[in-house]
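Let us work through a complete example step by step.
Step 1: write down the sequence.
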Amino acid sequence: MFSSPIIQSQGPPSLILQATENMPTVSVKWQKELFPAVEVDTSQPPLVFKCQLYDLTGVPPERQKIMVKGGLLKDDADWSTIGVKEGQRLMMMGTADEIVKAPEKGPVFMEDLPEEEQVVAVGHSAGLFNLGNTCYMNSTLQCLHSVPELKSALLNYTNSGRSNELDQSSHLLTVATRDLFGELDRNVKPVAPMHFWMVLRKKYPQFGQQHNGAFMQQDAEECWTQLTYTLSQSLRSPESRENAEAMKSLFGIELVSRVHCAESGEESSETESVYSLKCHISQEVNHLYEGLKHGLKSELEKVSPSLGRSAVYLKESRINALPRYLTVQFVRFFWKRESNQKAKILRKVDYPLELDVYDLCSDELRAQLQTPRQILRDEESTKLGLKVKDKNSASKDNDAKTLKLEGSSNENGEPSVVTSQEGASSEKQMHLTGIYDLMAVLTHKGRSADSGHYVAWVKQENGNWIQYDDDNPIPQREEDITKLSGGGDWHMAYICMYKARVVFI
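Step 2: predict the structure and record it as tokens.
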């Protein structure tokens, strides 16, 4: 189920783990090159170490001959019998993969192209090696990597860090995310996210939990939540003015809630910001929309000032501000007291390729959405031939300046654009419509959050879907994406990410 663990070169000095008996640092001599500080995880088989050297040298593990005391290092050798020590120098022999040159004449094949051209030709980014139960992390990263605005915000991130340890760890994780996203964009072959994983474990130690010497499976939703929270803290720093509200505008959802106590008649309102909506699953829930409505209602118990004791309050929430990308979590896992472990709700819950959240919004937000929604409907009706503009209506629309619709396209697959005679692109602004298109699904296969396997299914810019099963990207048909709705032991949606359909006015 899981790929062989792969390890990448070590990060900056501040991140190098303190050498222990289980993680000595050695130097490796290969040809004329010397790699002075390579970590050896003795809790993993030597094949992992060879994969690390492959990342450094380009010499495939099967070609590597590493000299250790007593002979050559075997893939399944026992490190304890080898006795590798801190600072020890190892010798490696082997030839790296040759770069295939394009033929001077005749057809040009994909493998003959330079790697950067292969990336463009393939149409999707590279996969991520599984480092040992890290599919929860890989699937999270592939989904978030599909957001171009997030990648732009990370590229603009220049904060040099803080003296405060917490801020410094957030800074390092943000930099590691930025660098890993860059590697995914530059490579065709799978990338080993070892540096990112090391920083993630240092920032959030729960992701470094081990059982019987192996790293444990973790919850992808927890990884998603922790990473987005860290980025929201880093990208709003004063040093990153261009990113001041990056995460909030991209993923932040503002909820306005009415809190009412039927017993005392007390009522209050409150506002909160969240980064995902919850789809609660019950016997009555068969569709995502129903689960979202359930998720916006809850009961809480707190002290009533008028009654002088605890009372039950009903909290009803509405969306008061929408993000560019809407994240929805299916609440599939719960704590089962009988077995003292997380259990999974396998119930089938359908979800749409197009999600309209208008009815879940506050009255204030609905009013703001009216005009953009009408513009969107008119444009789509025109595109389908259901509405034809006459000259009089066209002239009345001139004061609307330039309208560009994202999320819809013409028959050639290009973005639909309606241009007026008074277009002033410098003044146009983006307006949300409350309609979202599915762009990524993170699925889980298995009966428990602490086991099983996570996979990312991501829509590419060209409209094609790719299943990122760790280091193995697999093309998928769009009609198969909505079949990941549960009801059995197959992959089922755990997190859905939708992209807003917007108009520029």
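Step 3: interpret the result. Confidence is low (pLDDT under 50) at residues 1-20, 99-103, 391-405, 407-425.
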